[in-house]
């Protein structure tokens, strides 16, 4: 059966590349959506079987719209994770390729991509106006559609090729170790044909309001069981100023007896615990040894 996979499009985004890696065509049908809430809602409404969205970048941190939509608006578990290398390219229309750097008046891209290249932009294009787009591939399309403008876009090499743009520069991200963590969500668990680098469980924990030291006790429940936490973050409950819940990622499967014990102990403290998913994690590099790069 062909699975329908929603992703942040259009074609040529980093999310498209991540989705192709996790769900290769033709066994999956990849469907682009213009914004993260649309992607996640598609799977929640049953219009798509699965969805792929960015959740964290090594340079810029969490993607808040993913976290908030996942927690507040849908009820679909995380079923997999992919850590994908992010190499940003600067691309222009071929008609503009002979211009010198200081002639480019606009740099277009997704805010995350602009933020990941901000040192480069300040140094090389200090006078250019930055224009935010819904995705990096959207920026590439705008360049394609405006051949007469001295504009440049930041995005994937794939987007440059798809739109027949000229690559001015590659690897313009401010730090070489630029990775984004993508998650796949879906109502059915998925068995991938490649080995996972680890298993993770993500939980949302809301502390009782009148319990001094509650967070310390929550962390202790993991700590004395030697459960490694790889991510912890607070996000607003949206019920009032100062009201937060915690998102915790643990390097263990949900079914593991130690995790079951930790979750029961946290609930016994009076915390609300919601399981967001227990899933395998993959790295793009280690998948390349199993599958040919696409
Ligand atoms: O615009 C894209 O190409 C995306 O896939 C979005 C996105 C993000 O939101 O983090 C994905 C990976 C990179 O970190 C930059 C942008």
Give a verbal description of the structure.
The protein is of the alpha/beta class. It has three domains: 1-85 and 177-187, Periplasmic binding protein-like II (D-Maltodextrin-Binding Protein, domain 2, 3-Layer(aba) Sandwich); 89-169, Periplasmic binding protein-like II (D-Maltodextrin-Binding Protein, domain 2); 197-288, 2-Layer Sandwich (Alpha-Beta Plaits). 28% of the residues lie in helices and 32% in strands. The chain has ten helices and 15 strands. The chain has helices spanning 14-22, 36-44, 64-72, 111-116, 118-124, 136-145, 157-162, 214-223, 257-268, 284-288; strands spanning 3-8, 28-33, 50-57, 61-62, 78-85, 89-92, 106-109, 129-132, 151-155, 166-169, 179-186, 198-206, 229-236, 244-250, 272-283. The strands form two sheets. Strands 1, 2, 3, 4, 5, 11, 12, 13, 14 and 15 form a ten-stranded mixed beta sheet that branches. The protein has a five-stranded mixed beta sheet with strand order 8-7-9-6-10. It is globular and about 65 Å long. The model is unreliable at 289-294 (pLDDT under 50). The site of prephenic acid (PRE) has 15 residues, from helix 1, strand 3, helix 4 and helix 6.
């Amino acid at each position: 059966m062909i699975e329908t996979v929603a992703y942040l499009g259009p074609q040529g985004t980093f999310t498209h590349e991540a989705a192709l890696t996790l769900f290769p065509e033709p066994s999956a049908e990849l469907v682009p959506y213009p914004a993260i809430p649309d992607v996640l809602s598609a799977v929640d409404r049953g219009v798509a079987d699965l969805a792929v969205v960015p959740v964290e970048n090594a340079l810029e941190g969490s993607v808040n719209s993913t976290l908030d939509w996942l927690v507040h608006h849908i009820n679909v578990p995380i079923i997999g994770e992919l850590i994908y290398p992010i190499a940003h390219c600067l691309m222009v229309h071929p008609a503009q390729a002979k211009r010198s750097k200081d002639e480019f008046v606009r740099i277009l891209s997704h805010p995350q991509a602009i933020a990941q290249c901000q040192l480069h932009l300040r140094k090389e294009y200090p006078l250019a106006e930055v224009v935010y787009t819904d995705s990096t591939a959207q920026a590439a399309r705008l360049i394609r559609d405006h051949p007469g403008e001295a504009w440049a876009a930041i995005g994937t090499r794939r987007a440059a090729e798809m739109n027949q743009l000229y690559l001015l520069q590659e690897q313009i991200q401010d730090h070489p170790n630029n990775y984004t963590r993508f998650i796949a969500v879906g109502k059915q668990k998925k068995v991938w044909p490649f080995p996972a680098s680890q298993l993770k469980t993500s939980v949302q924990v809301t502390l009782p309001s009148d319990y001094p030291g509650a967070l310390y006790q929550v962390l202790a429940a993991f700590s004395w069981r030697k459960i490694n936490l790889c991510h912890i973050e607070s996000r607003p409950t949206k019920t009032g100023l100062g009201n937060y819940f915690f998102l915790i990622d643990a390097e263990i499967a949900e079914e593991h007896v130690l995790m079951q014990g930790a979750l029961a102990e946290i609930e016994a403290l009076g915390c609300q615990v919601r399981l967001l998913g227990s899933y395998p994690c993959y790295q793009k590099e280690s998948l390349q040894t199993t599958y040919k790069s696409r």
